[in-house]
Amino acid sequence: MKFKSITMENFMRYKGVNTIEFSCDPGKNVTVVLGDNTVGKTTIAQAFRFGLYGAVNMEKWKNADDYQLLNNDVLAFMDADSKAAVSVTIVAADEEKQYTICRKTIYSRNYPQMTCREFQKKVSMKIADLQAPDVVTEVDERQVEYVINELFPRNLSHYFLFDGERWSDVTVNGVRENIKESVHSLTGLSSYQAALLHLKDMGSNSVTRKFKSKITGDGMMYDSLENDRMRIEHMIEKEQEHVKNIDINIKNYQKKCDEIEQYLEENKSTEMLQGKLKNLQIVREEQRKRANNHYKTLVSQISDKAYMMFSQPLIEACVKMVKAVAGERRDIPHMRQGTIDYIIKTGRCICGTPLTEGSHELECLLEQRNYLPPADIGSLLGEFERTGNRWKNRTDGSYEELIEMAQNVDDSVHDYEETCNQLEILNRRMDASFDFAEKRRLLRHYRSEMEKTSVEKGECTGKISNYKKEIENIENNMRRREAANEENRKWRARLEVAEALYAKMKKEFEQKERKTFLELNKNVQLNFEKMFNAKDKKIQLTEQYEIQMLYQTERGYREEKNLSEGEKIARNFAFIVTVMEYSRQKKAEKLGVSELEGDTLPIVLDGPFSKLGDENIKLIAGVLPEVSEQVILFMLKKDWKYTGLDSYVGAAYCIDKKAEEAFALIRKMEEL
């Protein structure tokens, strides 16, 4: 697919009609549009987005209302009754057909203000056969958006419409898109997902669900089981929909967190303040852990020995008091009054002597009884005293230990609170300088919401898993109760084929997805080395397809998150080239050819080299004509000489704009 031309009418900086015709020569597949800063290079890139998707790429902290598409010079000459049109016409072609897309919006003026409002919007598309140019088909207006998306998938637009000045997010093009889905589309894996969805994953409209509905059973029990299955399947669909909504919320929260974090990073006061803040945060965390450990040790020691130590004065006083009134001990150790009462009751002493009324033996026993507990506490006092001595021995020196431990707790808490105060002061300094207070509050809020929704997602996933087990049990029961007839056997056989196919395709998909991930990770590093002169750096993909840059240290590679704008672009540029190159390579392998012609999307690059060094500009530029059949560049005049692309240029334009005029003009250049 190649772009043949783009025509802009009164679009933003461009007054009247301006047309750029792009080179479609296979040997000279580069078109370059040169201009200084602020003259309108990015406006042309925005025209591509508007023409294809009816939207423009918004900068951070702005929304759609901040963008006025109608040229200001045209607007200035409008009155309250007049109308003016903004339109973008894009002509593209593949090997067989030519596609003409025209998107137009008519505006009226909010007179006397210099603002306008939409009056009418329209998009049209015509398709012509290259072999018979006179045969032109006009696409139904209701189908235009669908056809455009088939030709130029919107979820891939951040790959072939590359904004170098904004491509600095951790994901793609400053927008947190689902990169994994985009990679699946480019590499053909999305066809597996579509098949899996059709077979089983789309719920009540899936093939397996419809086959199951054709199978009937005997009796009310079967009907009841089928109703239970349908009810639980509906609950699964409900939970799955909830999970999708949760994923959208998490994605939005993450995007907001990324934007705020980047804002805070970009507006930090100084590297010294930021470094001090990070160091204090590390120190505070260590102090918090130390204070908790000291506190736990103190609590453990108090729980173990404090009651023994604190009871010592009371024990000593009690022993002293009881001894003063108890007199000399005449009890038999470990014996109680109940023992004597038992001997008397038997009528015979343990020595065998009979105990009769008035006998000397009975009188001796009764006398001893008076010296035993509870009438006499001598033995109890002995046990009490021994326990007190044992506790005293165990707690010797414990008071000093507890004092020392308590002091450790006080000191560690004091250090922690002091560091917290320093952090608070530092945060206030930063907040006062840059008004970060509200941003930080929002960041905490979004992180908290992400945590809550992640927990909620886990609960939903658990419910889905349990529901699926219930359905499996119900279906086993239903299978046993199916009516034994030819129609059921037919649908059961079809169902088993569909489920076997689903299992096979799912296994193949997971294997191919893993292989794709590993190959992309390998190739992205090779392209990074080829395109960037940085021997101490490398890049890699995470399992979530986020792009990390790693720096070499004495202890190996570590991730570096605080990248310069140039490094962010370098990292992402290697990724986009790798994905496009990989897609082309895999399609060629599938067709059994060494190289594939005419089966890639063109790459449109706005300011791709503005934040890169001269050497890296040349390395990157040299790769571009090889990975795409058409390259369109909007760039600064001063950067062009470093690209080394003169021999690839098939068309060149220059943007002219006078300082006193509110519009720009595009002029074709015969030579650079």
From TrEMBL:
Keywords: Coiled coil
BP terms from Gene Ontology: double-strand break repair
Pfam families reported for this sequence: AAA_23 (PF13476)
Domain Rad50/SbcC-type AAA as annotated: residue spans: 5-267
Coiled-coil parts of chain: 222-270, 457-515
GO molecular function term, any single one: ATP hydrolysis activity
PANTHER family: ABC TRANSPORTER ABCH.3 (PTHR32114)
Subunit structure: Heterodimer of SbcC and SbcD.
Family listed: Belongs to the SMC family. SbcC subfamily.
Record-given protein name: Nuclease SbcCD subunit C
